[in-house]
Amino acid sequence: MTKGPSPRSVFDDWFANGMDPAAYDPTAAARLAMKPQLPKRFYKDVTVGEDDGAFALLLDGRKAKTPSRHVLAVPTRRVGEALAAEWAAQGEFIDPATMPLTRIVNSIIEGVVPNPGPVADDIVRYSGSDLLCYRAAGPDSLVRRLGEAWDPVLDWARDELGARFILSEGIVHVAQPDSATAAIRAALPADPWRIGALHVVTTLTGSALLALALEKGRMTAAQAWAAAHVDEDFQAELWGADEEAAERRQAREREMMAAATLLATL
Question: For the chain, which terminus, N or C, has the lower number of CB atoms within 10 Å?
């Protein structure tokens, strides 16, 4: 486990800089002490090389590996170039928080490609309690916004996929017809890479329908993300945004856009 600065070093900094120890914030110091140290960048050049029909990330000419020591290789050169851009953009230190596509690719290589079935099953399970099927009872302005954002997706799923879903008011669970979830399963791509990216979008939005609408080109990533947050945005307009919640949402949005990039470049 990496270690941050000790409490003693934090106090030393305060005294050395002539700061009043009475103003010392123990909570801030604890956060600083727990903050992991980022590894230094150990490479100069980032390129993409063809490797047995795939495209491997090369760091100074050597194949990069996933945490489980698989070759970090992707199906298309476009994905490889997007991956390389994340690594090339790193500065003196490597910050995983700025590399969402790399994290997704690692997960797919290690956990989806060998066995995509359970991941596809999880997407289908999400559709059984899909976000788009649970509507607010009021106020009328929120009900209208939800309808405007979600009804076109449900109509598309019914007309194009043959998936007819039942709506519910509030949070009371409603069982969806087997025919609806079966239609979602039939609409899933066979490619494990697309399944993996779809799963990321599904879990981030709470909606298999939004994920499929994105994957099939029915919505843009920005549209799908906005549709997933209609209620949250409405509440923020009424009561104001929470700073920490906004930061968490921005981090999730980066993951969402990375997954959308993967879908677009496969």
Answer: N
